[in-house]
Amino acid sequence: MRFDDRPQRILLPVSVGFVALSFVLALLFNLLPWRNISGVPDLAALVLSFWCVHQPRRVGIGTAWLLGVVMDAGNGALLGQHAFAYSVLAFAAVGLHRRILWFSPWQQAAHVLLLLLACQVMALAVAMIAGGAFPGYAYFAGSLVGAALWPAATFLLLLPQRRPESVDENRPI
Amino acid sequence: MDYQPPPFFSRGPAPLVRLAFFISLAFLLMVLDARFRYAESIRQGVAILAYPLQWIALAPVELISASSDFFTTQVALKRENDSLRSRQLQNANDLLTLEALRAENAQLRRLLEARERLPRRSTLAEILYTGRDPFSRKIIVDKGSQQGIEEGQAVIDDTGVVGQVTRLYPLLSEVTLITDKEQRTPVEVVRNGLRAIVYGGGTAGTLDLSYMAANADVQADDLLVTSGIDGTYPAGLPVAKVSRVERDAAYAFAKITCIPTSGVEQNRQVLVLSREVHLPRPSAEGPTAVKAAKQKRPRKRE
Q1: Which helix (H) or strand (E) holds B207?
Q2: In a mutagenesis test of the B interface, which of A87, A119, A128 is the best target, namely the one with the most B β-carbons within 10 Å?
């Protein structure tokens, strides 16, 4: 099985249950007690940007907002801080989805790095205005790790949509 | 008859409109949460929904720590047992003198007609996890309103003040550590009784003694304890030790940095102290005295 999709495959339709499951797993990861380790990626943001790029008609700003509120309540952060950042992230990802998919996985990761960094800067700005402390520049390492995980996320999250690789001479595609 | 595009062409409102709607909704939530704290019920609801998620997320961590406890070697246990026994012998001596001192102190206080400090009711709570929010210093503990925890209660460990309960859920509560940037703790310097307020230093894990005059009598290695004036913390609990004092003639205030004495970031168990309310006791002839005072006033005017 090839890692990148060249030439582009025709994928099966996505199942809504799998999308929901991936969000729940990402939230579980984010709610682990990661406090003292820097460079832990925000998997919820990564999975969100993935589905916004691949399924912009199913996952969009509304989903992002809900996910953000759950994140805020789970973390005890200011309610609406992540909801705001994720909404902007989803907007940018949906806006860029036609462009991003033209590139190879690592070039896509470069786009996603910018998206994740912008999301972190939004959350940081809101938190600083609300009176939080600056967490240090290591805070942004999470985005780098998250973007580096993009090709792996692409492979894993598209697995259920791949067709079986059976060679059929009579099938047109 | 109006013609409409088939349903698979309709995409709802434009993305920019949707973004504006959800951003304003997020800002509404933020303002409600930060300014008026109206969003508590929303937060409670989402927190109850997220509770099983958090529980599942923590299960592997619990399992690992439990199994590592189980596989502690016998040598380590033996060594720890020996050191604990020797420490207990040392402590027994201190404990005996402490009992005597406590009795003497109580008697002296009675003599001075000072209010006796009753031991407070306290609840042992275990830290479940530290919040992922990197902008604040908060921990979540496993006791909530069901176990009689109230908002505003002081949280301590065996070596000093840890923080204060700031948010309450049915089964959990959120404790803001004294190192949080928004947390203030009223203290006094043990050496000379100087009262001050300690501010959290944010992510650095230190505390600042702000707004002290440049010539204030504070030295390095001074111990700061709670003053008890606020009615939240009992008096005399160790809070921090002064680590550095910078006096600059250009500024009106000295820059004083302190290090918390308690293991603010290290503990697993903490103690939540119940709040005492000290209202001034009405004197025996209270109401009549007030009446007499009221009656006196018009007479004077006559």
Answers
A1: strand B207-213
A2: A87
Q: Which helix (H) or strand (E) holds A158?
A: helix A150-158
B107-133: per-residue pLDDT in tens?
A: 777 766 544 555 667 788 888 777 667
| Residue B78: predicted pLDDT | 87
From the CA atom positions of chain A, what is the Rg in Å? 17
* Closest chain A C-alpha to B78 CA, distance in angstroms: 31
Could you tell me which residue, B299 or A66, shows the higher pLDDT?
A66
**Cα–chain-centroid distance for residue A105?**
14
List the one residue out of B186, B199, B179 whose CA is nearest residue B137: B179
What's the CA dihedral at B129, B133, B134, B135 to 10 degrees?
A: -130
CA distance B221 to chain A (A): 26
Element (H, E) at B200: strand B195-200
- Contacts with B18 from chain A: Cβ below 8 Å: 60-62, 91
Q: According to the model, what pLDDT value does residue B19 have?
A: 92
Residue B197 has pLDDT above 50, yes or no: yes
Distance from CA of B122 to the nearest CA of A (A): 24
A133:B42 CB<8 A: no
Query: How open is the CA angle B193-B197-B201, to the nearest 5 degrees?
Result: 130
Q: What pLDDT is attached to residue A23?
A: 93
| Angle at CA of residue B242, ends B237 and B247, nearest 5° | 140
Nearest-by-Cβ selection for B15 from A28, A79, A95: A95
Enter the tokens of residue B71: 């596989």
Please choose, from the candidates A17, A38, A26, A110, the residue with its C-alpha nearest in 3D space to the C-alpha of residue A68: A26
Mean pLDDT of A32-53: 84
Comparing alpha-carbon positions, the chain B residue that sits nearest to A60 is: B15
